[in-house]
Design brief:
Nucleotidyltransferase, domain 5; two-stranded antiparallel sheet; 13% strand; alpha/beta; 5-stranded mixed sheet; 7 strands; elongated; 355 residues
């Protein structure tokens, strides 16, 4: 037997001797609690296999013993006192979580599901409204509940992180004051790629100005903006994307004209949807069916298309009307003759009642 083993054995014996001496002078209650703690740990050690583990009942025993006996750490062998304290804190959190969930929301009367759904709907449809405003609307609808209850359910209302609805609301509320500008490219037979610039109004989807160039730059864009409104009052907001052609110089010109430049977010063409839809219509109606020869040819084609777009082509966003306002024909009788008027070289037609 080595020297270290002898020292260890003597240390263990000394601890048992000291424990027996302390126990001899301890009170009867301390002895009973100490024996109970030791028996509990022995039962844990003799637990069934394959794995020995402390159950929730064992943890509850030690948490209760810690509250009842100041000397609970002396017989503790399987775990450290710090572990028992962490069990106590975890139990405290679970208890108050259960109490808070079980507590009835809104005071004495429970808020019905119908009212909760209506509150969530008002929050979603009116993002600037607070609990007092929503409470007032509910009172006018005949619902009897307190403002405090409404405030609690307003805080629980789901929030939509997607800014699309807020942006669309802005576009709808200010459509008469918004214009948008953009570029799109057109391949040609002799000039390579040409850039077509246009400005469109949101209220009637009307093309305020268009032009074609080979080399777009800030000076050229600024001149186009001046020609778009000439002596007219510009729109309050001018919407455009983050194209490098719309740089600091263009923004300065827009502000000098009295309009507020508004950029769309990165990679968000839907935020400039009116302009994007017009580009799509122009390609489908015209550019996909013709071969553009040069710059002059493209300007002539675009001029014809803009006239067709303003006067003849009905628009879904305008309740099947045209941007310029096409009057409804009046037929004199069931046998009225319908005339077919070709547009864009016969690509499209306009129909009218013969005089």
């Amino acid at each position: 037997m080595g020297c270290s083993d002898k020292i260890l054995a003597m240390t263990v014996s000394l601890r048992h001797l000291l424990g027996w001496i302390v126990s001899a002078f301890s009170s009867r209650e301390d002895l009973i609690l100490e024996n109970l703690a030791l028996r509990q740990q022995l039962l844990t050690l003799h637990a069934t296999r394959p794995r020995r583990r402390l159950t929730a009942l064992h943890k509850l025993f030690w948490v209760a013993l810690r509250r009842l006996w100041s000397g609970w750490t002396k017989p503790l062998v399987l775990v450290t006192p710090r572990t028992v304290v962490s069990w106590h804190r975890a139990g405290f959190r679970l208890y108050w979580t259960w109490v808070s969930r079980a507590r009835r929301v809104g005071g004495g009367r429970r808020v019905s599901k119908e009212v909760r759904v209506l509150i969530f709907r008002m929050v979603a449809e009116n993002p600037t409204w607070g609990a007092p405003r929503i409470h007032g609307e509910l009172l006018k609808l005949g619902f009897d509940l307190s403002e405090r209850s409404v405030s609690r359910w307003v805080r629980r209302a789901p929030r939509n992180p997607d800014p699309a609805k807020r942006w669309l609301t802005f576009l709808r509320n200010h459509r008469e004051a918004i214009a948008a500008m953009d570029f799109f490219t057109v391949p040609t037979l002799t000039f390579g790629v040409l850039y077509c610039f246009f400005v469109i109004g949101h209220d009637r989807r009307k093309i305020l100005h268009f032009n074609v160039t080979q080399n777009p730059n800030a000076v050229w864009v600024a001149q186009q903006l001046r020609e778009a409104w000439a002596y007219k009052q510009p729109h309050r907001f001018l919407l455009f994307d983050r194209d490098s052609k719309f740089g600091v110089d263009v923004i300065s010109v827009v502000r000098d004209m009295g309009s507020q430049p508004t950029r769309t977010a990165f990679r968000s063409p839907w935020q400039n949807g009116v302009a994007e839809r017009w580009v799509g219509s122009c390609r489908r109606d015209l550019l996909e069916h013709v071969i553009v020869l040069n710059e002059r040819h493209l300007k002539r084609l675009m001029g014809e298309y803009v006239r067709y777009y303003h006067e003849d082509r009905t628009h879904l966003g305008l309740a099947k009307d045209t941007p310029a306002g096409r009057p409804t024909a009046i037929r004199s009788g069931a046998g009225s003759e319908i005339q077919s008027l070709p547009r864009l070289g016969g690509l499209h037609h306009r129909y009218a009642v013969a005089a």
